[in-house]
Write a structure and sequence with these properties.
alpha/beta, Maf protein, 7-stranded mixed sheet, nucleotide metabolism
């Protein structure tokens, strides 16, 4: 079986190696803006991840021995979805809104075989609380540029880690790939022994 990760995320690539030591990377060209958020975070991230895995699946023309893993992660606070910040100002608004509050991180995972026989999606939610940050702490954090390219403007394993007060759920989900849930799903699909 040949495995393909449909993601450019270095964090996902690093984490997936803990389950699948060998896989290829083929970044999806799917335009996420084509899928509107309809109020259900879980359904939304599953639809995003499914669309990414399907766009890569289309490149393999019914190969029977190829399995594509698509993933997407979002941050949600009070019904507002935070993707990757466009710039420092956007990141600042995200971090300020989450300061001192709980928010939820959702990852959608889709496992799709190139021949379409396997097509499974699931989502995982983790709740995270930032401490109440001072203006100086926020500016110091923004200066690190650690927010760039990360849903919600932070990576739990990076510079923001000292501001994380509490977490409920899967830490790796917040990094972008819920390892245990993915491992279990691959076992249930008889892909892993």
């Amino acid at each position: 079986m040949k495995f393909v990760l449909a993601s450019a995320s270095e964090r996902r690539q690093e984490l997936l190696r803990r389950i699948l030591p060998e896989y290829e990377i083929m970044v999806s060209s799917f335009d996420e803006s084509l899928i509107p958020f309809r109020g259900d975070e879980s359904a939304y991230v599953m639809e995003l991840s499914r669309s990414k895995s399907h766009s890569v699946r289309n490149l393999f023309e019914d190969s029977k021995d190829v399995l594509i893993i698509g993933s997407d992660t979002i941050v949600s606070l009070d019904g507002t979805i935070y993707g990757k910040p466009a710039d420092r100002e956007d990141a600042s608004a995200m971090i300020r809104s989450m300061s001192g509050k709980w928010h939820s991180v959702y990852s959608g995972i889709s496992i799709t075989s190139a021949d379409g026989i396997t097509d499974s999606s699931f989502s995982v939610r983790t709740d995270v609380k930032f401490m109440e940050m001072t203006d100086d702490e926020m500016e110091d954090y923004l200066d690190t540029l650690d927010w760039a390219g990360k849903a919600g403007g932070y990576g739990i394993q990076g510079e923001s880690s000292k501001y994380i007060e509490e977490i409920r759920g899967d830490y790796y989900n917040v990094m972008g790939l819920p390892l245990n849930a993915l491992y279990k799903n691959l076992k249930e699909l008889d892909i892993l022994g």
